[in-house]
Design goal:
Layout lengths: L2 H19 L3 H4 L22 H4 L8 E7 L13 H9 L2 E7 L2 H10 L6 E2 L3 H9 L34 E13 L22 E4 L2 H11 L9 H14 L3 E5 L3 H6 L5 E5 L11 E4 L5 E8 L8 H11 L2 H11 L6 H6 L2 H4 L8 H5 L1 E2 L6 H16 L9 H30 L1
Helix pairs in contact: 7-8, 8-15
């Protein structure tokens, strides 16, 4: 059987798999699979590259632009594979790699047309938003034969019915990362983010969806609520929290937590494993949390779609996916890669949370345009609010104090002059 025929049969198999899974969105969001009966070998040598497939664009000066989260692909450190260098050597395709910090930054960059990318890695709800706005190109699975290794539980998700536009890259949950030398007890509630004893020691998400998400869960609401009253209540609570927050961060969390500059942070659970500090731990609050999937997609304006699909396929070569998930610190949706992981890693409750945690978690969905607009407006209000004068900084406070004192003295002098004028 030639390689083209093999790829066509693989695509047919995947289509049948997706059709079989369609209509079971609850299953797709459950992330359940049988960890005791793994369908693939744990022999690393059993997997080899299809060199003919990967040579399709060799010698043509081909390139792709890859837009990804920071610290989110194995770079050759920790004795793991340098994914991009390996792909370039195998395919003769140059990869231009840049990072974004939030889904909203990714969206704004693509929407503005300021840059062109071939592969992007948005999160679930942003995938749905981009599909709705026709910003993504359908995947040609005949060019991604390694889709056969994907866990069926991750295919046909709510955010992309039929897995037409996306293929999972990694998944995990949101939790509270904390320093055990600075926090007396393991936090069991989001309420710790409003605990005044940690004033100035709290790091908060610097993006609206996650910041509102944890706040809504703390209030007992769905993180996908579109109820204006509930959204407003969450905004007011975030304003009350602001005086306690040291900083709103994304990737900056790593340096701050490694250097003991903060006691508590909200972030993606797997990142706790990447922070180089023996005192770092992770807790999942009792109110529930967000479980998320980051997925590989191809923008509708991509200039090298074949190269992009080859790169997505390469990311799902089992040995590559296994080493990449070790580096990233999140769970993999690639079952063959999962089989290659050490048993200790497969049983890590941070990477692969127990089902009771997943059952108490929600996935984001794309909100309506009206709800997204309100969320953006409320987040702007939160960031601009000043509930406590101490959050302004010393210089602004001193300046305001000087103005107030100056005005008072001016009024006193004016009153004195007025008094003298009357007496005269």
């Amino acid at each position: 059987m030639d390689n083209n025929m093999f790829r066509r049969l693989t695509a047919l198999f995947c289509t049948i798999l997706l059709l079989a899974a369609s209509g079971s969105a609850a299953f797709a969001d459950s992330f359940e699979f049988d960890r005791d009966n793994l369908p693939y070998t744990d022999d690393w040598d059993a997997y080899s590259y299809d060199e003919e497939y990967y040579s399709q664009l060799a010698g043509q000066g081909a390139s792709i632009n890859f837009y990804n989260w920071g610290e989110y692909i194995s770079d050759g450190s920790d004795d793991l594979v340098d994914v991009i260098a390996e792909f370039e050597a195998l395919t003769d395709i140059k990869v231009y790699y840049t990072n974004f910090a939030t889904n909203e930054e990714l969206y704004a960059k693509l929407k503005s047309g300021a840059a062109s990318y071939d592969v992007i890695v948005p999160s679930d709800y942003m995938v749905a938003r981009m599909i709705k706005e026709e910003m993504l190109a359908p995947l040609d699975y005949s060019n991604i034969p390694n889709v056969r290794y994907m866990n069926p539980a991750f295919m046909d998700p709510n955010y992309d019915p039929g897995s037409v536009y996306s293929l999972p890259y990694a998944w995990n949950t949101v939790g509270i990362i904390y320093n055990t030398s600075m926090v007396d007890e393991e936090p069991d509630s989001w309420s710790v983010l409003w605990d005044e004893q940690y004033a100035g020691q709290i790091l908060m998400f610097n993006n609206s969806r996650d910041a509102f998400g944890v706040t809504l869960k703390y209030l007992g609401y769905s993180l996908n609520t579109e109820d204006p009253a509930q959204m407003r209540e969450a905004a007011e609570l975030l304003k009350e929290q602001k005086p306690l927050v040291q900083a709103y961060v994304m990737d900056q969390i790593f340096d701050k937590m490694e250097n003991n500059e903060a006691a508590i942070a909200t972030y993606y659970s797997g990142d706790a494993l990447l922070i180089d500090n023996d005192n770092i731990a992770i807790a999942i609050p009792k109110e529930g949390t967000n479980k998320f999937v980051d997925a590989c997609c191809i923008p509708a304006v991509a200039k090298n779609k074949l190269g992009a699909e080859m790169f997505i396929n390469f990311l799902n070569e089992p040995p590559i996916a296994a080493q990449n998930t070790e580096y990233v610190g999140y769970g993999t949706a690639n079952l063959a890669a999962y089989c290659l992981l050490d048993e200790e890693v497969r049983n890590d409750p941070i990477l692969y949370p127990p089902q009771e945690i997943l059952d108490n978690s929600e996935m984001y969905i794309n909100l309506s345009d009206e709800a997204n607009l309100m969320l953006d407006q409320l987040w702007t209000e939160v960031k601009a609010s000043n509930k406590n004068i101490l959050t302004w900084g010393i210089l602004p406070v001193m300046t305001i104090a000087a103005i107030v004192i100056g005005k008072r003295q001016y009024r006193k002098n004016r009153e004195k002059r007025h008094k003298y004028m009357i007496e005269d």
